[in-house]
Design goal:
- By secondary structure, the protein is an alpha+beta fold.
- It is about 50% helix and about 20% strand.
- α12 runs antiparallel to α13 and α20 runs parallel beside α22.
- It is flat, with a radius of gyration of 51 Å.
- The chain starts with a helix and ends in a 21-residue tail after the last helix.
């Protein structure tokens, strides 16, 4: 019998389902009784309140009839002379009104109104302002004027105090015996109106007759709540301060349904569904009662808890019986399978599993057997991946170092040589940035295949076949390493490197595009270059970097001088950090000249290192690359930006000609996306307007992180800064970024400006660049102008600006400031200590 059948035999006799059903029926029955009790209570309460209001209306109508028949009222209404009426009859009339109010203190206002609605007499109890001396616009007065002589009662809002009140009025139609004929029809002489307070009704609404959660309220036909009682939670805040709230259309539909028949509704004043009932107090006013459904649910919680307790105890008892019954049929077979699973978990994947039978237990045993087989295959795969690169399948760094250690031990015993080739793919980052990382992975796979192909060629590696063979491994990224043990002559490694470079000259095809990449190879030899795994790998790495600095796509053998270069680099990095702490940097400024007028329109801020230990002025070529490689370019760049803006603002404040200061931005500053924020902070700190700051970026910076650069350029230009593309022509020189990137100015590299007047090809390139830049709306700066011929050529081609030794070398801030002062008085660059071309006599200011 299958497991499903066994379980059914045990579950069928159980009464768990019946117990749950009985408990549910009992709970629903109690809830229904509670609902009926609450609804009957609310229905009775609404009837009582409605009857009280109706009784008050009937009493007020009867009193009004008696008051209207009063001799003083009739006399007051028949006297036509207003002055005589007020002088002789008003006080007695008001005393008569007061008599009624003493007996019925809730008649807080009794009035006699003229036919036009003007109040001719008014007696009030308490402080009730008389805001409406005429009732012509009062809805009650309009309704009262429409009747002949019957008494009319309405509930509404008193315009004098804004409270809901009962209005009882009667038209006074009288015949004057002294004037009117006996058979004349009585004429309308005025209206008698009693205003009855409903404060007692409001107190009853506020007395929580429906408990802490229910609510009684009065609303008019438009849905405006006029009186309300206690509101659950924060709903009362919605009714303050004037005790009014306009219900939504959905509320009104729900309320109308509640008047016709009790039922459930959703109400905005409460937190959820409510039981709603209503009574019509008058044609325009309704009394409603709303009781939250949750209140009814709370009444049944105790029984619900009891039902839950009984059900749980029954389930526990049945579970005990089930457990002992299932132990024999299910648990013991499962325990045997569990023991097998533990054996598999401890690595015994060849354990035999008994799987006789056809039920689920047998199927589970077969599944465990299949799992053990799958785990065995997975373990083999994991062991392979632990020692090999998942992309290329080559040994990884860990396996290579272990293999190299064993090869070194053998080489020491037998006095043999070992050769390491450390390879790094040139321009690999460009492939990743251009086509994406997936294309980069394809390139790595093809590179590994070519590397293995070179080593598999016959008679390629002339080594002793008695020693372990060569190994090719991927250390990570685009770095590979080759171990060549037992070479007959270490010089053979040079031939192998040549063959590798030769194979790499063939194009790589990725996504149907051809790419040409090379490799920089560093070579070390045991025992000449080291006798340990770390030393040999490190020296091969140094030799590779030396090959990369030597022009890439070549190989270099390790030499001790390379170690010395590393030491010098570390020393220079330490000194550079110290220079930042000691503030040993200064700014020099090289003027940017407008070629048409000869005026100084700007200056490029160039950083110099004033070494305090040696007194030497270190040029930027010696420390800027190191600063970029170590990340020190970030604090150095911030310092340059702050100093340049501070000096430029100071020159403006001293009345010197305003000029645009150019500051070079590094790739690291742009890639981090922090340049625009730093510029904003520096401009705010120094007070320099953004239009006088120009950020210079090279083509390499733009292409290295195109998306980040475009975002930064957009933010910088939004600040108002100018953007210049520096050293144009020596990088990618792509029309794409001239078209898509936000560039204001293009600076032609000095290598093109040099000899542009004498070399036809140079001149043609410069002419094309100027025309291209102007076509895109960019200004053009010729860098490195050193001769009059170069200047004349640039002027003839319409170049906008020039910069170079012909005009001025980079000057310290004080000397550059003096140059600005000379321009301000008309002497221009002629006063400089270095050669400069003369400015026109009128070249004053910018």
């Amino acid at each position: 019998m299958r497991l499903q059948g066994k379980l059914l035999l045990l579950l069928i006799p159980l009464v768990g389902g019946a117990l749950v059903a009985i408990g549910s029926v009992a709970y629903l029955q109690l809830r229904g009784n509670a609902e009926r009790n609450y609804l009957q209570q609310m229905d009775t309460l609404l009837d009582q309140l409605s009857q009280q209001v109706q009784s008050k209306i009937r009493t007020a109508e009867a009193n009004l009839e008696l008051l209207a028949a009063n001799y003083l009222v009739e006399k007051y209404a028949l006297v036509a002379d207003e002055a005589e009426r007020y002088r002789l009859l008003q006080r007695p009339l008001l005393r008569s009104f007061a008599g009624y109010q003493s007996v019925y203190p809730d008649y807080y206002e009794i009035r006699y109104l003229l036919p036009d609605g003007y109040e001719a007499a008014r007696r009030v109890l308490g402080e009730v302002p008389n805001r409406t001396e005429t009732e012509a616009q009062n809805p009650f007065f309009r309704n009262l004027a429409a009747v002949e002589d019957a008494v009319r009662s309405e509930l509404g809002v008193n315009p004098d105090n804004g409270e809901v009140a009962l209005f009882v009025g009667k038209p006074l139609r009288l015949r004057d015996p002294s004037v009117d004929p006996v058979l004349a029809k009585p004429l309308l002489r005025g209206y008698l109106v009693i205003t009855v307070s409903l404060s007692q009704l409001e107190q009853q609404l506020l007395s929580r007759p429906l408990g802490d959660t229910g609510i009684l309220f009065v609303a008019d036909a438009a849905g405006e709540i006029l009186l309300h009682g206690h509101v659950h939670h924060d709903a009362a805040a919605a009714l303050e301060p004037d005790h009014s709230h306009v219900l939504t259309a959905a509320d009104l539909r729900a309320l109308r349904g509640g008047v016709e028949r009790p039922g459930r509704a959703w109400l905005d004043l409460l937190d959820g569904p409510v039981y709603l009932q209503g009574r019509e107090l008058s044609p325009q006013l309704y009394l409603y009662g709303a009781l939250p459904v949750d209140t009814v649910k709370a009444a049944t919680e105790q029984l619900g808890e009891l039902v839950i307790a009984i059900t749980l105890s029954t389930i526990v008892a049945v579970a005990g019986v089930l457990f002992f019954a299932l132990r024999r049929l299910v648990l013991r077979p499962l325990q045997r399978l569990e023991a097998v699973a533990h054996q598999i978990g401890r690595g015994r994947l060849d354990i035999a599993i008994a799987s006789s039978g056809s039920d689920e237990m047998a199927s589970l045993g077969q599944s465990l057997a299949a799992m053990a087989e799958s785990l065995a295959r997975s373990n083999e795969r994991v062991r392979f991946l632990a020692d090999h690169d998942s992309l290329t399948g080559l040994p990884n760094r860990r396996l290579f170092q272990d293999y190299l250690g064993k090869a070194l031990a053998r080489a020491r015993r037998h006095g043999e040589t070992l050769v390491l080739l450390f390879l790094d793919i040139d321009e690999f980052k460009n492939v990743n940035d251009t086509l994406g990382h997936q294309a980069g992975d394809v390139l790595l796979e093809q590179f590994a295949e070519r590397l293995l192909g070179v080593l598999r060629e016959e008679d390629m590696v002339a080594h002793n076949r008695r020693v372990p063979g060569e190994m090719v491994a991927r250390l990570g990224g685009d770095e590979f390493i080759v171990l060549l043990p037992g070479l007959a002559a270490p010089a053979t490694a040079a031939g192998i490197a040549e063959r590798i470079l030769g194979r790499l000259r063939e194009p790589f095809v990725i996504n149907r595009q051809r790419f040409f990449v090379g490799a920089s190879i560093g070579i070390t030899v045991y025992p000449d270059d080291g006798d340990s795994v770390p030393d040999l790998v490190k020296h091969a790495d140094l030799a590779m970097y030396h090959a990369k600095r030597s022009g890439k796509n070549n190989y270099q053998f390790f030499a001790p001088e390379m170690n010395a270069a590393v030491v010098r680099r570390m020393h220079m990095e330490r000194r550079l950090r110290q220079a930042l702490e000691r503030q040993e940097f200064v700014l020099h400024f090289q003027p940017v000249i407008e070629l048409r007028s000869g005026r100084i329109l700007g200056a490029e801020a160039l950083v110099r290192w004033q070494d305090l230990d040696t007194g030497r002025l270190v040029p930027p070529d010696e420390f800027i690359p190191l600063a970029e490689a170590t990340g020190l370019i970030l604090p150095l760049g911030e310092w340059v930006l702050l100093q340049a803006c501070t000096l430029a603002k100071g020159w403006q404040d001293r009345g010197l000609p305003r000029l645009q200061v150019g500051v070079n931005a590094s790739a690291l500053q742009v890639e981090r996306g922090e340049l625009s924020q730093k510029v904003r902070e520096v401009l705010a700190l120094t007070g320099l307007a953004a239009e006088w700051l120009e950020l210079e970026l090279t083509e390499t910076v733009i292409m290295a992180a195109a998306a980040e650069v475009q975002a930064e350029l957009t933010r910088l230009q939004a600040l108002g800064c100018s953007i210049a593309l520096d050293d144009f022509g020596v990088g990618y020189s792509s029309l794409n970024y001239l078209r898509h990137f936000s560039i204001d100015k293009l600076k032609i590299d000095r290598s093109f400006v040099r000899d542009c007047a004498g070399v036809t090809s140079q001149g043609g390139i410069v002419t094309a660049i100027i025309a291209l830049a102007h076509a895109f709306g960019h200004k053009v700066v010729g860098e490195g102008v050193e001769t009059e011929g170069e200047l004349a050529f640039l002027q003839a081609q319409g170049c906008d600006l020039g910069q170079g030794f012909l005009f001025s070398r980079p000057l310290p801030a004080a000397e550059f400031e003096a140059l600005l002062e000379q321009q301000a008085v008309g002497t221009g660059l002629q006063a400089c200590a270095v050669p400069a071309w003369p400015l026109p006599a009128d070249a004053v200011g910018v």
